Amino acid sequence: MKISEKLTGENPAFSFEIFPPKKTSPIETIYKTLDELKDLSPDFISVTYGAGGGTANYSTCKIAGDIKNKYNIESVAHLTCITNTKEDILHILEEFKTNGIENILALRGDFNPNYPVRDDFKYADELVSFIKNHGDFCIMGACYPETHIEAHDSATDIQNLKRKVDAGVSRLISQLFFDNECFYRFQEKLAGAGINVPVEAGIMPVTNRKQIERMVSLCGASLPRKFSKVIQKYENNPEALRDAGIAYAVDQIVDLLSSGADGIHLYTMNNAYVARKITESISGLLR
Ligand code: FAD
Q1: What 3 state SS string does 113-142 have?
Q2: pLDDT 10s digits, 210-249
Q3: Domains in the chain, please, with CATH?
Q4: Which of 4, 142, 147, 204 has the greatest number of beta carbons closer than 10 A?
Q5: Which residue's CA is the closest to the ligand 1 atom numbered 51?
Q6: 119-133 in b/e burial notation, b at 16+ Cβ within 10 A?
Q7: Which residues belong to the active site?
Q8: What is the 191 CA–ligand 1 centroid distance (Å)?
């Protein structure tokens, strides 16, 4: 079912994101995670798409298809475009259709020196238009409360986002952030720009220091003092850091939901234990 039809806005959305196992691990490892996530009844689970394009991402399609057909949970397949030709994308859309996938998170993708950029798509809005013309999918898009790292300024980024939404995006999922005030300011800018589609807030529970350093260098999320203190205090105590990371994420989510956020998208990092702890803490707020 299309997410845009399933989620009518009565209750906030609650979704998970997972990634396919690395090439060195067997694909089966993800099914162990899914076995544990399924009882948490998310509204959908999205599956990331690795850099590289072409048929390199067969596992995204396979896993998203299995989430839907074997686990009976709605799935969203991520799809990036800068390393793909139109022909590649047509082929992937056919694979999605064959696997019963009805929802796509349409992305540009990041530049990666290992994978050459093709000329067919420059930005995600072009992929959105292309998908719209070649299938009947619910198309979602990414957005950036603290502005996309390459954008000249926030106003330009929002204008570009408006273009993407106008091309056919019916829901947005945000980049992770640790300071809810950034998200609230972003919501105001969206309203000012006439962007009215639901926006799920991207929350990443931080459970180890390396992970946070990597994420922050990739997306430039700002770190509130309260958050940095947690990292500094517990960086050498994995169990304490995990518990503090879960508590911080729960605190963020409670504040977001009580402020009327459209939904929460949990970047699970394939960690079912953390996803379960968070879900158990907030389940009453979702119904
Ligand atoms: P776009 O919307 O194309 O924006 C990219 C930049 O170009 C922005 O600075 C924007 O302001 C500018 N821009 C956009 N349109 C135009 C235009 N028409 N003219 C001029 N400038 C324009 N990456 C992966 O490789 N795989 C994944 O599975 C994946 N999943 C993600 C999930 C979420 C929720 C998020 C937030 C990000 C994800 N990413 C993923 C990362 C994403 O690919 C990068 O953030 C990428 O740099 C931008 O992708 P986008 O679709 O937001 O790009």
Answers
A1: CCECCCCCCCCHHHHHHHHHHCCCCEEEEE
A2: 888 888 888 889 999 999 999 999 999 999 999 999 999 9
A3: 12-280 (3.20.20.220)
A4: 204
A5: 107
A6: ebbeebbbbbbbbee
A7: 17
A8: 20
